[in-house]
Amino acid sequence: MAGTDQLRAAEPLADGTGRGGEIRRSAGSLALSGAAGVIVPLAVMAIMGRINGEVLYIRSVYMPLAFLYISLQMGFDVSNQVAAAISRGRGRVRDVVPVALSMGRVGAVIWGALTVLVMVSAPGLASLMHMRPELIGTFTAFVRWTCLASMLFLPTTLCASSLRGLGHAGSAAVIVVIGGSVEVGGVALLGYGTDLGVYSLPIAIAAGGIVSLTVGLVQVHRRGVWKARGPLVWRPEATEQLTRTGLPLAMSFVVIGASNFGLLWILGPFGPDVVSGFAAAATLESLVLVPSTAIGSATAIVMNRLRGAGRLDDVPRVLGSGMRHAVAVYAVIGLALWLGRDGIARLMTDDPRVAAETAHFLSIVGLSYGCMGVTVTAVVLIEQIGGGVIALVANIPYFGGMFVIGGVIARSQHESAGLYGTIAALNLLGILTVPLITWLFVRRMVRAPRELT
């Protein structure tokens, strides 16, 4: 059967050789998928910024809520990806679809509950962020429609993560790229061609979600994953994987989202130009970190297949290969961000005051992304090999430090530079600690392996 042959081709090499090449190939496809996932909000923000300033401001204030959905999406995405990779290593491809559908049942309940909570709390968030009274109604309606449209992310995420875990990162990237293209095109078409304004985004999200889900189902069938399925019954390992991997990861993203909300609150009194400039820089940061996420995920996929196959002795060498890739990539990225800060800021928005704030951020933080990228690679990797709680604990002082220390300095100086300097210092501190923690965790895992789900 064609599908079975394609699945067999994804087997990890028995002797563990060729790990660098496999990481590069997988990371390339993962980077394409991740870049599409980040370029979409960047493009949306750029389009909205050119519709009018109020539309961009509403989208910027919504960003912390978007992180809640990102946290939920990533929890299910990585949990299912890890489960699929381990199943592949064990030679049990038939488990992939039943486990994914079991995760989907859990996700439907959690996703629905979060949507109701956010829809109810939207007016309070607008007031907390010092939004002008005449914008609160528009913001509330925008949040509610966007949350409803975002519910389509769950089934699409399960399709893409199943394919990635099985070694079909390219097929997973197709899902994300096509859906994102529809979303960006929809925002541009509706934003410029109609009077919908900010409401063009939820409509475009819904259209992109429908298209990407359709493509995802086609890819799952074309790759033979659906044909290779076992009985579609409840699989308890779904909740075990969600608890072990997804929950700590989701909580890490909640910490990130809460931190971003706190940082926007800190910058709120400095005016909408500063808020929008920082939001643009934060969105750009997501793009900057795509290679680190891709390298970390690709390395973790290889490691999880080796874990599933019982080849733990090869795992440390895979870790070393992945981290060397991250160091090489981010030595270039950090320098490029700092040198090209003014041009990058102008690409983000045509508002000179907002662009000036984005360039101000990059002038202080840009070089430190060379350190942050390596650190994030280590965090992503440890999250996906069973160390989610450790990654969560490592994230709390970093993002808490930005909020507490950076907030105190910025508010006392009445200037955003104090916050940005704190972020740069924490980025430098991270590279001195997190990669070492990851190495120690892998070393312990090899010496005392745990039962895999």
From TrEMBL:
InterPro entries recorded: MATE_fam, Membrane_Transporter-Flippase
Transmembrane segments: 29-51, 57-76, 96-122, 142-160, 172-192, 198-220, 247-267, 287-306, 318-339, 359-382, 389-411, 417-442
Biological source species: Actinomadura harenae
Protein name per its UniProtKB record: MATE family efflux transporter
Keywords: Cell membrane, Membrane, Transmembrane, Transmembrane helix, Transport
An annotated Gene Ontology molecular function: xenobiotic transmembrane transporter activity
Membrane topology term: Multi-pass membrane protein
Subcellular localization: Cell membrane
